[in-house]
User: Fold these one by one.
Assistant:
Number 1:
Amino acid sequence: MRENGIPLLRTALVERSAYKAPFRLGGTIYDLKDREANNPAAAVDNAEAFAQEIRDVLIGTRSRNEVKSYA
């Protein structure tokens, strides 16, 4: 993929109970309390890092040299 100029993300969106809880409880991951899901703050941090990286790739603020494969 890298040879074809396709960017690979460095940030993985880890499966977390906090991502499933809003479907059960309503709201978003930002609304979750510690008693409703395991470590919702880590889920927020992970989701924001993933979204920021997607944004950077889409608007081109990351150079192709910065994009690395971790496969």
Number 2:
Amino acid sequence: MSQVTQCLINISDMSKKKKKQKKNVYILLTKTTTVPSRVIHFFKRMPYVHVSIALDENLYELYSFARKGVRNPFNCGFIDEDINSGIFGRDVKTKCQVLRLRVTDAQYEDIKQAIEIFKADREKYKYNYLGVLSIYFHLGFERKYKYFCSQFVDKVLQMGGVDLFDKKPSKVIPDDFRNCDKLEKTFEGELHSYRDYLNGGMTVPQMYP
């Protein structure tokens, strides 16, 4: 085998390895001005009390477990979120942090398929209220077809072959994502400014301590 042929093979192998690491998913941490948000913040002292997962940088494909409407905080479940409508649209001062997670093509597709499972039968999935309460006592209360936001995001990641934390999804809180060194912070500021930042309308994100 000639040196040129061997060199081409090595370049091809390197290219294949790079392709395996070309996908990203995004974790959105938020804190709104709703009463439940303020209560959770008061007890847990977390800067962000809600977490969502997105399949794209613009956060167009954004999913979580939260209230289904603006007015009733007890009508909760699996939802498609929109950063310009619903609670986010109403609370224009919503603070956020966007985190990027690099995954392989296979992991990205598995995460996408995991979300599709929830989308296909969304009415079956309810909010895990008891699970949220159990966190305050350092417990992880699991109920079939019931999730809270951080439990859902970690569960979907695990279904995709990504294990960020050494604990059950039912024990994961939003602050775990904020403190995870496997995630890269790409933005922190007011949520309504995020897409302006991506489009070059903001030169520097509005940062919060």
